[in-house]
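Study both lines:
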Amino acid sequence: MNSAEVEASWPQDAKTEINRINTAPNYYVVLHVTPNSSEADIKRNYYKLARILHPDKCKEPGAEDAMKTVALAYDTLTSPIKKRLYDSYMTDTNNQSGEHVESYAEWEARQGQVQLPAWLERLLRIRGVSWIVLIGLLILLIPLLIIVFLLSIIAWVLCMPVNFFIRIFFPEKYRRMQEEAREQEEQLEAERAAMRAAANA
């Protein structure tokens, strides 16, 4: 049977597809595509499977779980970032030997873990060493905090308001500026009073 005949006979009945999906080794097999398939092919196959496996239409046992797997496969393979991650997972698991091949969820969780150097892990297992490491880190951080504090004071001094600077270093000029501001305020108040009086007349 050639590939065209296989394609024509796919998808099969719901029971066969549920069994196929439950035993599929990866998302590409779930959606009956290859890593080089276009997004249009992935979408077309997803809709074909959804038509026969959707829980509203299919009452076969396991249909709901199979549909969840199909939806997850579709979501992963149509997102460029998720697909790239999944392809990395495929490469890693192809290189794994032994009976247990980790699932995509296990692999993804392992990628998020911070790996400490082996010597540090051994050191931290020794009783009381973690406290010594913590105190050492605090001793290193204290000078850093002092530097940050000093830099913030310098920044505050450099960004001081101009009026404050003038008031300290040029008190005469500051007094004149205050008087001018007061005169302008009085003049504005007089103009407002005149306008109110004219409006009331």
Observations:
- The two ends are 105 Å apart (CA to CA).
- The CA atoms of residues 190 and 196 lie 10 Å apart.
